[in-house]
Amino acid sequence: MAAKNIVLLGATGSIGESTRRVVAKHPDKLNIVGIAGRNRWKELAEIAHEFDVKHVAIFDEANCRAAEQSGLFPEGTTFYPGLEGLTAISCLAEADMLVTAIVGTLSLKPTLAAIECGKDVALASKEILVMAGKVVMAAAKAKGVRILPMDSEHNAIFQCLQGERDIDVAKLILTASGGPFREFTAEQMKSVTKADALKHPNWDMGPKITIDSSTMANKGLEVIEAHWLFGKGRDQIQVVVHPQSIVHSMVQYVDGSILAHLSPPSMTFAIQHVLLYPERAEGVDATVDFTKMLSLDFRPPNYELFPCLRLAMEAMDAEGIAPAVFNASNEIAVDAFMADKIGYCDIPRIIEQTLAAVPACDPQGLDEILHADAEARRLAQTFFTSVHA
Ligand code: NDP
Ligand code: MG
């Protein structure tokens, strides 16, 4: 069979790197035809040479011009600047699948465009489902394309659901490492620094998701993501803290049986599963070794210590625009924390204030969602300005 052609948005990032490792392991099955990034364009040039890629999107237009003039890319490379460029590369005629792994919601339009062109989507960027899950899932259904989950929890659930009847599913159980502060007291949370929050105990990921994991906003986003991917309500989605990050999630069936997916905490397992689906082949990383002592612990989450998780659940209950507002205000708050403009405990405070300030509505289409998203970002900025003052 011919190799599957993929376009990789976020090629220079953490998911991008794991995806490249999977592709390099299976050159007969996978082929990268387009790559996209924003700032690290010299790395994009190396990637273009390594995988013989001729289509390169660089969001930042000045970087795109510099890349084009650098002579560092393979001969005959076509460059695609800006959001338009991201959208065009996502729809490349020769592509079979789009891998969406750009941090935040910027890839929403390119992903929708790829769906419109009939491409399957391997989705890492959970933020776009939280913001516009209804629109994305409806578009995929209308076009008959698959949204395949790369996020490890959702990939685990996807694997545990294979061959089962949807009617038999009692609940989806999402595991969470609990991040670096799972043993902290509320008092200790007040003095968390950026360096502390950027040190995840189990996973090596990009900075935004690492901060989100430390606040457990990430698990909140994932609960909403699970709702859209698997069509289950909040009463059928449970979060369990599992510090070892070996069980990536579970599905409980009506008879009480629980199926779990296990692998070491490396994204290559979920990525390879999605890229080769429904085929399987030898993995990139070594798997769990049961000849060695291994303990697996589970405990309920602490919603008081992690208000971001509670706020995400409340946003999901509120439905309508609330999840998009949660996501937008979280992005603004995390950016502000990373820029040393606010303290760690201001992150949930800003989200809560923004959720209270944006009027509830049930958006009917993309324009309304984009409008509410912009309004939430604007309001969140005003709250961090007042926190800072
Ligand atoms: P990173 O910060 O490591 O990488 C982000 C990538 O996005 C980089 O390639 C960056 O390009 C690119 N990018 C950022 N903004 C733009 C833009 N405007 N246009 C084009 N490219 C852009 O993030 P991660 O890989 O950790 O995360 C990516 C997504 O995957 C996130 O949505 C995250 O939630 C999700 N995810 C990540 C997991 C992980 O293990 N890392 C696990 C599950 C989900 P450049 O470097 O060139 O600026
Ligand atoms: Mg995850």
Number of strands: 11
Small-molecule components bound:
NADPH dihydro-nicotinamide-adenine-dinucleotide phosphate, magnesium ion
**Residue runs with pLDDT of under 50 for 5 or more positions:** none
CATH architecture call of the largest domain? 3-Layer(aba) Sandwich
Q: What is the C-alpha radius of gyration, as a whole number of Å?
A: 20 Å
From N to C, what is the helix and strand string?
A: EHEHEHEHEHEHEHEHHHHEEEHHHHH
Provide the CATH topology of the largest domain: Rossmann fold
Question: How would you characterize the largest beta sheet?
Answer: 7 strands, parallel
Category by helix and strand content: alpha/beta
How many domains would you count in the coordinates?
Answer: 3
Query: Helix share of residues?
Result: 40-55%
Within CATH, the superfamily of the largest domain carries the name NAD(P)-binding Rossmann-like Domain
Coarse morphology: globular
Question: On the 0-100 scale, what is the average pLDDT?
Answer: 96
**How many individual helices?**
16
**For this structure, what is the CATH class of the largest domain?**
Alpha Beta
Q: What strand line-up does the widest sheet have? A: 4-3-2-1-5-6-7
Separation, N- and C-terminal Cα atoms: 62 Å
Strand content: 5-15%
